[in-house]
Amino acid sequence: MKQKEFQTKFIRLREKGYVPSKRNGHTGIGYTLESFLGIPENNNARPDVEGAELKAHRTKNKSLITLFTFNNKVWKIPAYRGS
After folding, report:
1. CA nearest neighbour of 34 among 1, 4, 58, 61
2. Cβ-based burial of 66 (10 A; exposed 0-12, middle 13-18, buried ≥19)
3. pTM, whole model, 2 decimals?
4. Do residues 1 and 34 make contact, with C-beta atoms less than 8 angstroms apart?
5. How many other C-beta atoms are found inside a 10 Å radius of the C-beta of residue 46?
6. Could you identify which of 5, 56, 61, 63 might form a hypothetical disulfide with 33, taking C-beta atoms 3.0 to 4.6 angstroms apart as the criterion?
7. In 3-state terms, what secondary structure has residue 80?
8. Are 71 and 46 in contact (CB under 8 A)?
9. Which residues lie closer than 8 Å to 74 by C-beta, 6 or more apart?
10. CA gyration radius for the chain?
């Protein structure tokens, strides 16, 4: 999905206000977000929107979110390995 398409769909979703989760459990919120954006469910590490992976979480959840994870299956450039 291109960034402009994502922005348009995200604004429409935001305007809906609260929407109930489409699935119970810890994967429900991400599944719900992707469903409303028209992104098919997948179990791969490839990015959702122009090179970026979407992340979602419940507001009151205290779990940590990993925003940057090394994944050698999707890197387009060599990872920096230090000196």
Report:
1. 1
2. exposed
3. 0.67
4. no
5. 10
6. 56
7. coil
8. no
9. 45, 46, 47
10. 15
How far apart CA 6 and CA 10 sit, in angstroms, is 6
Single-letter code of the amino acid located at 42? N
> What confidence tens digit (pLDDT) does each residue in 38-59 have?
988 877 667 788 877 787 877 7
DSSP-derived letter for residue 48 is S
64: Cβ contacts below 8 Å, ≥ 6 apart: none
Q: How would residue 8 be classed by pLDDT, with cut points 50, 70 and 90?
A: very high
CA 61 to each of CA 8, 10, 26, 58, 67: distance values in angstroms, whole numbers, following the listed order:
27, 22, 10, 5, 16
